[in-house]
UniProtKB/TrEMBL annotation:
Domain Aminopeptidase N-like N-terminal: start-end pairs: 89-182
Lineage of source species: Bacteria, Pseudomonadati, Pseudomonadota, Alphaproteobacteria, Sphingomonadales
Domain Peptidase M1 alanyl aminopeptidase Ig-like fold span(s) in chain numbering: 440-534
Organism: Sphingomonas aurea
Annotated ranges, domain Peptidase M1 alanyl aminopeptidase C-terminal: 539-854
Name of the protein in question: Aminopeptidase N
Name of the gene encoding the protein in the UniProt record: pepN
Domain Peptidase M1 membrane alanine aminopeptidase: 222-432
Amino acid sequence: PAVTLRADYRPPEWLVPETALDFDLDPAATRVRTTLSVTRNGSHAEPLRLDGAGQEPLAVKVDGVLVNDWRIEGEQLVVPLAGDAHSVETEVVIAPDRNTQLMGLYASGGNLCTQCEAEGFRRITFFPDRPDVLSRYRVRMTADSARFPILLANGDPVAQGDAGEGRHWAEWNDPFPKPSYLFALVAGDLAVNRGSFTTRSGREVQLGIWVRASDLPRTDHALHALKLSMAWDERVYGREYDLDVFNIVAVDDFNFGAMENKGLNIFNSRYILADPDTATDYDYDGIAAVVAHEYFHNWSGNRITCRDWFQLSLKEGFTVYRDQGFSADQGSPAVKRIEDVRSLRAAQFPEDAGPLAHPVRPDAYQEISNFYTATIYNKGAELIRMMATILGPQAFRAATDLYFDRFDGTAATCEDFVACMEESSGRDLGQFRLWYGQAGTPRVSASVDHAPGGGRATLRLAQRVPATPGQPDKQPMVLPLKLRLFGAETGRPLTDERLVLLDQPAETVTFEAITERPILSINRGFSAPVVIESDRTAADLAFLSAHDDDPFARYEAMQQLMLDTLVAGAIEGAADHDAVVAAIFNTLENPELDYAFMAEAVLLPSESFIGDQLAVVDPEAVHRARETLRRAIGQGLADSWRQLYAVLQQGPYAYTPDAKGKRRLRGVALGYIAASGDADTGRLAFRQFEAADNMTDRQAALTTLANGDYAEREAALDIFYNRYADNSLVLDKWFQTQALSSRADTAALVEQLAQHPDFSLANPNRARSLIGAFGVNQRAFHTAGGAGYRFLADQLIALDTLNPQTAAKLLPPLGRWRRFDEQRAALMRAELERIVAVPSLSKDMFEQASKSLE
Ligand code: HT7
Ligand code: ZN
């Protein structure tokens, strides 16, 4: 398969200042007439090369005259051009209703919509489909007036009218030059929730959230989040919106979360639709974060885009960093940081340690869609965060101002961004750039020496970046580590917080006037995305979990304490649980902590994360160790959980930080009550399930019931199913809850659920809710015998024929074979080999599966 190399980047041979698109929309046969004004870029004799995918040119005109000297090379349309500026017209017919890949123009729920990032535009029309060709688009759509009364595209609406014979037309004009991946149109029968926002310079922007009419009551949260995002970007980054309209359309069939098309965002409906009865607090938070993320792309992505796809993290890492800041400002920054680090560890750390590891700025790809990864997005955001930490808030803001000013209207690189950070602050980020090129999660060892009675403490730090595919040797990185010392006897801070930039393989840091044994608080706020290996004792960690003034460090100490206990339990079959139980008790009793933080702090690490700490993952041993500790916490603190469960009961539903925190902690309390094994658990959970006036409480109860062997389990699942049978987003939860169950028979149940009449691989949300959830359920997926591996491979092979992108994203659990015992590893490899051998496998799947075998 063809490999695209970063080093091969060349500027485009032809530019396209203007693009006019004329769509005659029809689900079965849509005619697309495209007129490009093209100009030669530099002096060369190359023909114009336009990317296509699957379509045939029905006609090609140059300067209005039909020509026939064009040719097809691979999937490109090659048109010889004599002069330096021409008009080139093409005509194709495409079939949106047969587009199961959901890339290009496709049908969803009777409507038509587009998805062009990364290379979907070429499935609509012939075009130089690369992000550094910026063009002004004018779009005309003609469609059946009854089936498609609403016609939307990028930019501003300019005209509309009747086309006769029951059809109508609309024209949209986007004044901002943009790459083809930001093109969008929507045609459908949609209702709108309208709002408006006045920018700080006085532009009144018409906002619209477009959904099917029955979903309209579930759009207020998204609209509110959009207004908050617009205000936040003005206040925090000085960025204003730049068009008179901003539309969002929700569709049910979508490969990703959402798409930031200029002025016309298209969303997976799960990131728009919410009401208390159908969406959890987690869903509400996710909606606000994704609405913000897509809106923020208007500057970090659209006004300044990427020169090539190797620079993807330029827009994605920065925009994730921006949406994380937004969400932190809406609620608790500490809890948000904990959530972000938890998802980094769940998705990115394993990616960085496995066969698909790649740098934040990759060097090569076969299929770019495979690079929309946790590394590009979440690790990319950590890189921006580290630069912000190193520069400090004012210098960082000055640097982003410089970046936005200097590169507005252009296609830029990660290097351009770092250079702005450097130029604006005067700091040398030469070595920091290694973060963009070296894959792998650095490991930092930290130990403190202090002679009893002495005044000096010496902190010894050493770093090591593990080898990753294609990168056997690594250079030391710059690691910004925030740290502080606390006194073991008095409990007082012995130092201020310090920012240490570890840029050598090993360094020592000394602290004077340290009069008692110091306890190290390190990587506070998770200032660097690294693994810390320290010799802190259980007592030290328990101390920090109770007294550290940095909330993240406090959480982290508790996690480490739990992890040490769980790893000992998994390896030795037994562990002392007392320190964890006592630390949790102290946390629950601390009046200074809010409920949301408490809930995060007392949750045990996931089975996968515990597995990540072992040389060879033993899924059953991990499960046993975690369940044993859960039971010890449940039983040891039974009174606390019961009391909390009662006290945290609330009146009518409210979506406020306090109410959310209470719901979260109450759900955690229910989980620990269940873990204690008390006989009334099923009844208690079922009562909550029935009495709940919101999905958060109902889902928490259902999860508890689904994980156990309760008499009420089946009834709850049936009631839930019947109540929400016509709501596909909630049915996704029904599938997902069962696929994530910790029960021993989950693998068999998931196989049955794949035969359920409501299960379909054609809808990515549904596929992810069952197949994706099963893949990350360590115990179920790795059930001895390999049935889970076979099932996943079968599903992926089937899904690949419909939607290769979604299939390829669900493959990584099979690629983790090196982490398991020989028997499991052989079974996993066999399934990967079976996948690779499938004739006509997509390049998406081939790349993921073949790399996973290497
Ligand atoms: N920038 C968007 C990426 C995206 C995407 C990528 C591949 C296939 C389908 C897709 N839909 C959206 C989303 C974002 O990061 O905001
Ligand atoms: Zn994004």
